[in-house]
Design brief:
Strand order of the largest sheet: 4-3-5-6
Structural class: alpha+beta
Mean pLDDT: 91
Distance between the termini: 21 Å
Number of domains: 2
Shape: elongated
Number of helices: 8
Largest sheet: 4 strands, mixed
Strand content: 5-15%
Order of helices and strands: EHHHEHHHEHEHEE
Number of strands: 6
């Protein structure tokens, strides 16, 4: 699913990202790391780490693979589905750390360690690029769930937080979403089609509610009883 029209500005809408962009970046990182390890050109690993670090610190405008995707590839393929930017950002943080460690290992005379770390990055990045399975993203999702459980279990919603009172609540589905998130839109369309009452929290403008209920990933949706009890988790 994609749109020829850009709905999310890649340099301003930083909460979300075109799902194809991380896979393009993973292709660059994976191939670069593979070449570095096979050919023994370890400075490539340092250059890749530097690019990831610059992008994480200063934003997508300063990440060369990101700019290449958004300026050269996306205009030709169209915009892919829009997803939460936090999981791929976390994966980039892991990639930066491991690439930096691999470069340091080569620099201090431990080529076997450097090659092992560089090979690990190459394998995981190419796996993500070709299959869509991102190990770093999955680690983020697991961590987000654990943080939510430790911070506050999502077992009750205060009706006043979502603009409801006891007299007009009834059973409903509460969706924490972002207005540009493709999966959020699909989920909410399914809820409406099922005839269930839908209440939404826009995490872009209501960040305080996302923090209060420990929501670290969109879409997150729960079924809520009339008294505010969460009866089941539907997404997130």
């Amino acid at each position: 699913m994609f749109s020829p029209v850009r709905t999310a500005d890649p340099y301003r809408d930083l909460d979300v990202i075109d799902s194809r962009a991380p896979r393009f970046n993973q292709t660059v990182i994976g191939l670069g790391s593979l070449i570095a390890v096979v050919a023994g050109w370890w400075p490539i690993l340092a250059a890749l780490a530097l690019q990831l670090g610059i992008g994480l610190r200063f934003g997508r405008r300063y990440c060369l693979p990101c700019v290449a995707y958004f300026e050269l590839v996306q205009p030709r393929l169209g915009e892919g589905s829009i997803e939460d930017a936090r999981p791929p950002r976390f994966a980039n943080q892991i990639g930066f750390t491991v690439l930096a460690a691999a470069s340091l290992a080569y620099a201090v005379g431990l080529p076997a360690v450097g090659a092992a770390l560089g090979g690990l990055v190459a394998a995981l990045a190419l796996l993500a690029a070709t299959t869509g399975f991102c190990a770093g993203c999955q680690m983020y999702r697991l961590g987000a769930r654990l943080r939510g459980i430790r911070g506050r279990a999502l077992d009750r919603i205060e009706l006043a937080d979502v603009g409801l009172g006891e007299s007009n609540a009834g059973d409903f589905v509460l969706s924490f979403s972002h207005p540009l998130c493709t999966d959020c839109q699909s989920l909410e369309a399914e809820v409406r089609a099922s005839g269930k009452r839908l209440v939404t929290v826009n995490v872009q403008t209501q960040r305080h509610l996302a923090r209060k209920y420990g929501v670290s990933l969109v879409p997150t949706a729960v079924a809520v009883a009339a008294d505010g009890r969460v009866t089941s988790r539907l997404a997130g």
